[in-house]
Predict the 3D structure of the following.
Amino acid sequence: MLRRTLGRAASSKHATAASIAGPWRSGLRLLVPFVFLLAVPCSALSATSVPADSVGVPCDSLPEFKTDPHETGSQGNQISGVVRTMLQDRRGHLWFGTQNGPIRYDGATLICYRIRDARGHGVTVTAIAEDRAGHLWFGTDGGLTRYDGERFTRFTTSDGLPSDQVWGVFVDRSGVLWISTIAGICRMEGDAFSPFPLPAATRRNNERGVSSPWLAWLMTQDRSGNRWFATEGSVYRYDGDSLTSISVMDGQSPTHVTSILEDRRGHFWFATQNKGLIHFDGEKFTNMTEQFELGGTEVGGLHEDRQGNIWFVVEHSGAYRYDGVSFTNYYAKQGLTSHALHFVYQDRAGRIWSAGWLGAFRLDGERFVNVTRKGPW
C-alpha cells in the first residue's frame, strides 16, 4: 500500500517574528511546510529474531565488564564499564543500556542479554524506549532491536533503516516510534520504516566523537504535541505540518544542544555541549551556567523529578539539581565518582539514578552509592 512520506523542506526562507504565533517569536525561522510525496516505505518483515532465553546470561557468571577492556585491575565489578541509558518498564524491571548490550534487573537477578549485530559482534545500547504494547526498543550500534518479552528482533538497513548506527529511539504520544540514525531519521509505521528528512546540518561539532549532518541527538515531544529534534548546531520543532528552526540564545554562533526538557511550568531547558545550561521562560533565554557560575559547559541528561527539581549532568563536574532557587552539585565527594555521566533518571519508587563511565549510581539521602552487580539495589 502506498503511504505518504515526508520530503525535504523546500525552502529555508526567513519569516518575520510577527508572522509566528506563540511564545517562540524571538529567534525563529519558519521553514516551508513539508511537501508530502507518495512513496513505498521499506518493509521490515525480514528482521532477524532470537529467543531471549538463548541470549540471556546472569551477569554474575560473566567476567567483569570494564570501561577499558584492556584494564587489568578490577573496576569494582560494575553493571557495565559504561552505562549510557536507563529505563524502568511497565513491569517494574530496570533496564540498563550499556556497552555490553541490554542488561535487566528484575528485582532478583541481573541478566545480560548478549544480542549480536549482523556480523556476530556484541552491541552497545545507546537508547531505550517502551511502546504502548509494552515492547522495548533498543537503539544500538548494530541496528534497532525490539524485545517483546520473549524474543529479541533485530532490524537493520536490510529492513529499511537509514543506517545500522542508531543513536536515538522515541515513542510519541500517538504511539509512533521515531528512530535517529547516523544517516537520518525515520518513523516505524506498521511493519515499515518511513524516512523523515531534516535539513542537513552545516555546523559540525568537532568536540563530538561521533558527528553527522543527518543525525538527531535528541527527539522529544512537548505538552502541545510538537516534536523536537536537536541536530548538529540546530534545533527544530515539528507541529505535524511544518518544521520550525529554533535559534537558541544569540543565534550568531552554533549552539550544540544535547537535551531538551519542558518542565511543569511550561518553561524549556536546553542542555548544550558548548554553552552550558540554557533556560527559556517564554520570553527570554538565560544562560544558567554563566549566571550561577556552574562548573563546565558540556551539559546533558536533563530530567525533572516528581518534586519539580531539574537535574542534569556536566562533563567533569558530576550532576546538578536545581530547586528553582539554587543549584546543588553532586560529584566525587558525594559519591558520584564518574567524570563522564550520561543521564539522570527517576524510577517509580522515586529513587534518583545517574550513570555513565565507571557504572551506575543511586542517590541515597544526600550521597550517591555505586550500584554494582551485587547492588545495593
Notes: The CA atoms of residues 239 and 267 lie 18 Å apart. Confidence is low (pLDDT under 50) at residues 1-23, 25-30, 32-40. The two ends are 49 Å apart (CA to CA). The longest helix spans residues 288-291.
